[in-house]
Write a structure and sequence with these properties.
- This protein has 399 residues and is mainly alpha-helical.
- It is built from twelve helices and no strands.
- α9 crosses α11.
- The radius of gyration is 38 Å and the shape is flat.
- The termini are far apart.
Length: 399
């Protein structure tokens, strides 16, 4: 619709206002239908359904009267607001709960028209392990500062992905985020004011704390972070198998890929640490060339680590997951479903089955006489030696 309006001479600002109004009417109409069935408050004659039945001149006249109706008129930027058109905003509309509800409602409405599940919108989970990056608008005067902040936020989010893949508990990640980021930023604002240059140092310390936790997990001999998790035993018969059980092997394969990538990052970080120590111990007038070589190795390793960190979220996004956290939640659910299913199979195996007589092959069968002789031998072997007394006939030799 933008192109026809622009071709008719309508300016960008004007047709943007008109389209915003139409989208509002359309979304309100969707809310009034199942499964929502909410009261929109739009008077009769001005709803999307009312206007959608009109055409031509009637539609144009109704649309104009809608815009000229008191309380519905669009105020251009810079125009003085008339007090009679607006009431004082209620405190409820400023609350976090209301804003969160509106965001989720509009996200659900927009997703109704998005067919591909991969492209559906998702409201950022506040209070989670990740940090929200900022969207930079066109000609934003603070774009450069926001880009720097986004790089720090992304650095933290990538480290969180590594921690989750290494099976670091989420509550430990949230604790580091609260203590090292949220609390320190709050204290920094109180003491130094809003100084964006200090935020980068706070994020760097938080990332270092989280990396230390990841190293501790790798150093544990009993850490459940095998690059090759145990494969799922395939049963010939799987009655009433849940869908998640079928997905479990493929999810495990994704986890293996994440583990291999995580191990590669850990190895690169250990190499980087060794080279940095070597550089710090390399001193003297005649070791400038060696220091230059070591500095080149450090820069190369840092680039490789950055590239590997970028690949962790790309792996799960390739399979339709938005974040590593979302993937691990589904993996955990699939693992639980698989354990329950395997337990039910084991229970079925323990049920007593009808005993069938074992029949030896034809070549191993014995004759009746052979069985009698074998029974006699068994009886003799079981009898104690002392009970075997010789039998003598009394009339022996009488004749």
């Amino acid at each position: 619709m933008c192109n026809p309006l622009r071709d008719d001479g309508v300016s960008y600002g004007d047709y943007l206002e008109q389209l915003t109004y139409l989208i509002f009417l359309k979304m309100s109409d969707e809310y009034s239908k199942p499964p929502y069935k909410k009261e929109t408050g739009i008077p009769a004659g001005y709803t999307w359904s009312d206007m959608n039945t009109l055409k031509g001149a009637e539609l144009e006249e109704q649309y104009k009267s809608t815009l000229e109706e008191p309380g519905c008129r669009i105020i251009k930027k810079g125009e003085v607001y008339e007090r009679k058109l607006f009431t004082i905003k209620e405190e409820h509309f400023k609350s976090e709960g209301f804003l969160d509800e509106v965001k989720r409602s509009y996200t659900d409405l927009i997703n109704l028209y998005v067919k591909d599940e991969k492209n559906k919108l998702k409201v950022f989970e506040r209070g989670g392990v990740y940090l929200a990056t900022k969207k930079i608008g066109k000609n934003n005067p603070k774009a450069e500062r926001m880009e720097v902040d986004n790089r720090y936020w992304k650095w933290w989010n990538e480290t969180v992905d590594r921690a989750l893949v290494a099976d670091v508990p989420e509550h430990q990640i949230l604790m580091i985020k609260k203590v090292e980021i949220s609390d320190k930023i709050r204290n920094s604002i109180k003491e130094n004011g809003n100084n964006p240059n200090l935020f980068g140092d706070i994020i760097a310390l938080a990332v270092a704390a989280l990396q230390l936790l990841i190293r501790q997990v790798f150093q544990k001999p009993s850490a459940v972070i095998s690059a090759n998790p145990q494969t799922v035993e395939q049963e010939p018969e799987q009655p009433k198998k849940p869908p998640l059980v079928d997905k479990y092997p493929s999810l495990l394969e994704i986890k293996r890929e994440l583990n291999r990538k995580n191990y590669a990052i850990n190895e690169k970080e250990q190499q980087l640490e060794k080279v940095k120590k070597e550089l710090a111990n390399t001193k003297g007038l005649f070791k400038g060339k060696l220091r230059k070589q070591l500095q080149g190795q450090i820069e190369k390793l840092e680039k490789e680590i950055t590239s590997l960190n970028h690949q962790l979220p790309e792996i799960v996004q390739k399979y339709g997951f938005k974040t590593v956290q979302e993937f691990l939640k589904e993996l955990k659910a699939a693992e639980t479903a698989n354990k329950t299913y395997q337990a039910s199979l084991t229970q079925n195996k323990k049920k007593p089955e009808a005993q069938t007589p074992k029949v030896k092959p034809l070549g191993q069968r014995q004759s009746v006489l052979g069985k009698l002789r074998e029974n006699q031998r068994n009886i003799k072997e079981r009898e104690p030696q002392e009970t075997r007394t010789p039998i003598t006939r009394k009339d022996r030799g009488a004749r």
